[in-house]
Amino acid sequence: MKILIIEDDERVGSFLARGLKAEGYLTLLLSDGLHAHDTIKQFEPEVIILDRMLPQLDGITLCQQLRSQQVNARILILSALSEVDERVKGLRAGADDYLGKPFHFEELLARIEVLAKRSSNIEHSRQLQVADLVLDLDSMRVQRAGNEISLTAKELGILELLMSNSGKVYSRERILTNVWGMNEDPLTNIVDVYLARLRKKIDDAYPVKLLHTRRGIGYCLQVE
C-alpha cells in the first residue's frame, strides 16, 4: 500500500517514512502542501498522512481542496491541535481520521490499518447510538428520530463523552477535563450552562428523555 506523508517537521517526517517503510508500506514524503496535488496524481496513494500546520498551505485547506477534487485517498490528519473543536474542524474538512501529537507509533499503525480496510466504494461510518439518538463520529453529525440536530463543538464533545459510556455518570470535573482540557475549577457554572443547552436540543422536543442529572454527582445519558 502506498502512503503519502505531508509533514514539514523534518524529524517527524523522516521518522514516519522510515517507520512505515519498515512495516512494508511504500512511502513518499513531502515537506509542504503546495506540490501535493501533482504528487497525488502521479503517486496515487491509498492513504495520506497530513500535518495540520503546514507552511504556506495549511492542512485543513489542503484537505478541503482534495475532497472538492474528488480525491478518494483516505486522509489522516496529524496535529498538536487535538482538542474536540479542532478535531471537528478536521473531520468536517473531509479527513477520515484525526490523531493528536504526540502520538504512539503503534496507534498510528492501527489507524492506518483501519483506513486501509475501508472500501473506496463504500462509505464507512462509525456511530454512537442511544435509543433514537445517533452521533456519526466521522461526520460529527447528530440526529434524533431522523431529525438533524445542530450542535457546537463543545456540545458535540460533551455528547460524545456521555454517549461513549451510556449510563455512566460523569462529574462536572471530569467533563471539564475531557471536553475543555481544564484540570481546575474555573469557578463558573459553564458545564451546567452547556448541559442545559444540550438538553434543550436533544430532549425537549421528544417524549423520552435521555440526558439526566444526578444531583450532587453529575450527568449521564441513557434510556430510563
Automatic annotation (TrEMBL):
Domain Response regulatory: 2-116
SUPFAM superfamilies cross-referenced by the UniProt entry: C-terminal effector domain of the bipartite response regulators (SSF46894), CheY-like (SSF52172)
DNA-binding region: 125-223
The keyword Transcription regulation belongs to this UniProt entry's keyword annotation: yes
Alphabetic keyword roster: DNA-binding, Phosphoprotein, Transcription, Transcription regulation, Two-component regulatory system
GO terms for MF: phosphorelay response regulator activity; transcription cis-regulatory region binding
UniProt cross-references to Pfam families, sorted A to Z: Response_reg, Trans_reg_C
Listed name of the protein: Transcriptional regulator
Domain named OmpR/PhoB-type: residues: 125-223
GO cellular component: cytosol; protein-DNA complex
Coiled coil: none
An individual GO BP term: regulation of DNA-templated transcription
Modified residues annotated as 4-aspartylphosphate in this record: 51
Key word ATP-binding present: no
